[in-house]
Structures are given as C-alpha cells and as structure tokens.
C-alpha cells in the first residue's frame, strides 16, 4: 500500500518510513505495532506489510533521508545500522511543496519554509495543486495521514464550514481567513476518495462540511491527535479510579518536550489546540470534572524525548485523600510512528470493505476521537477488536 504523509519530513513521518522499511527488510521486529498483535493477524493477508511513501512538506530539504538523518543526529532514536539500511528507500521520497495557510506563529520556528500561498495562489489553485500531487502518486490502495505541525484552533464559520456547499463557496470566494492548511489537505484527499487520518490536533476533516464530503464519497476518515504518551496513560489509569469508586479530586499533567514539535507548540496559538485536545479526556473517562492543570512547555535539550509528570490527588474510603504520581519518559516518535502505519492499514481495510464516513472504532488511536465519547483505552481496544473481527469476516 501507499501512504501520503502531510509533514513528510517530520520526525514521526520519517521514523514511520524508516521503521516500515526496516521491518520489510527483516532487520527489526514489529514491536509497537498494534496490527501485529494476535487479534489483528489476519490483516497481513488483506493488507500486506509493504509500503510506498510520498508526501507534502513546507521545509525544503532534498529528500526524506536528509530529514531522517537530521532527526537521528539529535535523538539517536534507533540503531545506526537501521539508518544505513533504509537510506536508499528514503532518498527516493521527495516531498511536494505544501500549504501552511493559517498555521499560526509557531510555524516560524521551523526555519525557512516554502509554501504554495507564497506563489500567490488562490484557495482553488492551492487545492488543485494538492490534488494533482495526490493524483500523480495515489492508486486504489493509498491513504493520506496528516502528521504536520499542530495548527491553532481556527475560528469556526457556520457559513463556510457547516456544509459542503459553504466550503465550496469559501474556496470560490478565496476566503483565506477561514481556511487552514489541514482542511485543504483533508478536502483534497476525501474528494479523490482517499482515506484520510488526522494524527494531529489540527481541525483536518472534523468540520461538518468535510464529514459531509466523506459521506458523499463514501470514503473512511478518522482522527484526531494520536494518543501516544501522557494521554494514553491517563485514559488507561483514570478508569481504574472509576472502577474502584475512588474519587479523583485533582489531576496535574505537566509535559516538557523539545524538537520541532515542541518549538511549534511553544507558540501560544498553536499550543492551545494541543491543550484542549489533552484536557477533555478526564471528564469523559471519569464522568465528572476534577480540578485539572494541563501544561506543555518547550524544553530544547530534550529533543524528541517527551517527559510528562503527573500528580493525581484522589479520595478513598472514609474521605481519606491519597496521592499517585507517575513520570512518562519516552521518545515521542517511537511511540507515535507505528500507529501511523496501523491507522493507515486499518483505514485501507475499511475502504476495501466499502465503509465511508468517520470510523469511530479507530478511537483507540486518538486523544480526541471524532464522533466518539469513549476515551477509556480498555473499552476502545475491545471496540477496535470487535470492529476488526466483523470486517475480517465480511
Ligand atoms: N509524536 C507524538 O507522539 C505525537 C502524538 C500525537 C500527535 N502528534 C502530532 O503529530 C505532528 C507531527 O509531530 P512530529 O513530532 O513529527 O513533529 P515535527 O515538527 O518533527 O514534524 C512536523 C513536520 O510537518 C511539517 N509541516 C508543518 N506544517 C506543515 C504544513 N502545513 N504542510 C506540510 N508540512 C508541514 C514541518 O516542516 C515538519 O517537518 C504534530 O502535530 C504533533 O503534535 C505527535
């Protein structure tokens, strides 16, 4: 299958490419891939583990290997032997120029960028360029995944985002203030009937207009924001307090990270989308809202080593207050990139089985699952297994 990555030179994208190629060559195991677990084994017969990559970018680098090497020098996130082994595969991946429309002030932290809007293109022309790039690359087994930097929360416009007709009008009128890059990529993918996943907190395909487009074209899509670190632990642990009738009275989550992702998130407007995405889960997992603090700060020397410090204050029998602390210390791209491959394979399976619209059964992979209030990781996993079983039998 083919995967088109928006943000192709980022650390999650390049690690996903390197990991996929290293697994194909048999030099590493499939640890970290959910689809390699026993309940999903049948997927290998339906969607073989074999990938071709392409994508859009706004940083102009010669190819994905140069980007991977840059990330590797800062993070050493896998053995040197793997870097060498995947070199020629990643050198072949040369991203197309993308759009960064309304991507916020944080985008400046990426250094020199080149975008389609810099060429003075209208919204219609930007979309046309994106669609042409996709058409040139895609076949019937292609999935688009957004792994670009997090955008700020856009101002919602009922007129332009509320219906597909309104969205088309926004494009016709070149109403650039209302469009964001992630919407334009999602629109282009869905219009071409390519399954689309949003691994970021950006708006992507989650506005009513694009959900309508996905339903109309009968193409599957899923998001938002990969659930990989602190939120994964939070939504796995919070149910434990609920099951034992222990009242969570306060939960503090303090995240620090470096790298480009951390730099972009150090801009207030970009950070806000991430905090909203992380913050909503507690209420959904517990059924009430404890006092909560969620912070994300840029910490340059950590690079991609994201560290989360959590403090939970909870009440037990006889009203006694007790404390629970945890520290999550992981390489963000190592926990995120296998999920990109999992999500792409599962969305392609959905497409093959003619499923269209939001695939809420993929909630397991996301912090803010679209159209799904289940945030409990255990329940999400069971839901995913059941869905997969039904699909595999169909
Ligand atoms: N790593 C994780 O565990 C994790 C978890 C959940 C979500 N995410 C999200 O995934 C995204 C990627 O994370 P990362 O660590 O790879 O970040 P990164 O900064 O390394 O990569 C982002 C890439 O996207 C490019 N880019 C930015 N805006 C673009 C645009 N409009 N069009 C095309 N390319 C664009 C950047 O130049 C960069 O190469 C972020 O939004 C992050 O919040 C990551």
What is the H/E order? EHHEHHHEHEHHHEHEHEHHHEEEHEH
Q: Name the hetero compounds present.
A: nicotinamide-adenine-dinucleotide
Q: Order of strands in the sheet with the most strands?
A: 3-2-1-4-5-6-11
Largest sheet, in brief, is: 7 strands, parallel
Rg on CA atoms, Å:
20 Å
The average pLDDT value, as a whole number, equals: 94
CATH architecture of the largest domain: 3-Layer(aba) Sandwich
State the name of the first-level CATH class of the largest domain. Alpha Beta
SSE-based structural type: alpha/beta
Account of the 3D structure:
It is a single chain. Strand 5, helix 10 and strand 6 (220-223) form a beta-alpha-beta unit. The mean pLDDT is 94. The protein is α/β, with parallel strands linked by helices. The strands form two sheets. The chain has a seven-stranded parallel beta sheet, with helices on both faces. The chain has a four-stranded mixed beta sheet with strand order 8-7-9-10. 42% of the residues lie in helices and 17% in strands. It is globular. It folds into two domains: 2-226 and 334-393, NAD(P)-binding Rossmann-like Domain (Rossmann fold), CATH 3.40.50.720; 230-331, Dihydrodipicolinate Reductase, domain 2. Helix 1 packs across helix 15 and helix 8 packs across helix 10 (208-217). Residues 6-7, 9-12, 56-59, 98-100, 103, 107, 110, 147-150, 181, 199-200, 225-226, 228-229, 259-261, 332-333, 335-336 line the site of nicotinamide-adenine-dinucleotide.
